[in-house]
Amino acid sequence: MQPNLLVITISIVAGICLAASSGFRVFVPLLVASLASRAGLLPLNNGLDWIAGDMALAMLSVACIIEVAGFYIPWIDHLLDTIAVPGAVVAGSLLATSQIGIGNPVVAWIIGIVAGGGSAGMIQLSTMFTRGVSLVTTGGIGNPIVATAETGLAIITSLLAVFVPVLAIFAIVLGVVVLVRWRTRRNQGYQPRRVLA
């Protein structure tokens, strides 16, 4: 494999992993990408270097804090999940495209939207369903556990995407499997209360 092809492959994997991480939290991977780019650890392609700008960093920091805090408030977290689906797709598309070092920007954007936006959207939908089951089965009491797991996965997978992209793939798959299994177990253990006549 030629070095250029290897570099392109690793950057595409990093972009898709960052995109998938935005399915757990929309702004965490964007903030990690901004900080990593400013530190010289993550080059940004296709005219998306504004992600590392001062204004973007400030706005992403505030948005990240609001998003993470909002998921600890019952019922608000479900509302945020609904709003986050299109947000995750957009963030995933941006993050994936920012890493695709292909000379043709149209091709880079198509790959970014399909691979990045698609992976972010699928993960976001799975977390939305997990939170919905938690809301129904625990009345929202279990949602802080789900929120903590999702935020942790967003941070870990974003950092892995920057430093070790191949490991990020396994972390994302493992995280989704754990969340789905948790949801399935909670769903199977849910017994609706009988109303006494």
Describe this structure as you would to a colleague:
There is one protein chain. This protein is mostly helical and 197 residues long. The protein has one domain. It is 77% helix and 0% strand. It has seven helices and no strands. It has helices spanning 3-21, 27-38, 54-70, 76-99, 105-138, 143-163, 165-189.
Features:
197 residues, mainly alpha, 7 helices, globular
Count of structural domains: 1
| Run of helices and strands | HHHHHHH
Helical percentage: over 70%
Number of helices: 7
How far apart the termini lie comes to 72 Å
Number of strands: 0
Rg for CA atoms: 18 Å
Mean pLDDT: 83
Uncertain spans:
none
Strand percentage = under 5%
Largest sheet entry: none
Structural class: mainly alpha
The coarse overall form would be globular
Blueprint (SSEs and pairs):
Elements (H helix, E strand, L loop, with lengths): L2 H19 L5 H12 L15 H17 L5 H24 L5 H34 L4 H21 L1 H25 L8
Helix pairs in contact: 1-4, 1-5, 1-6, 1-7, 2-3, 2-6, 4-5, 5-6, 5-7, 6-7
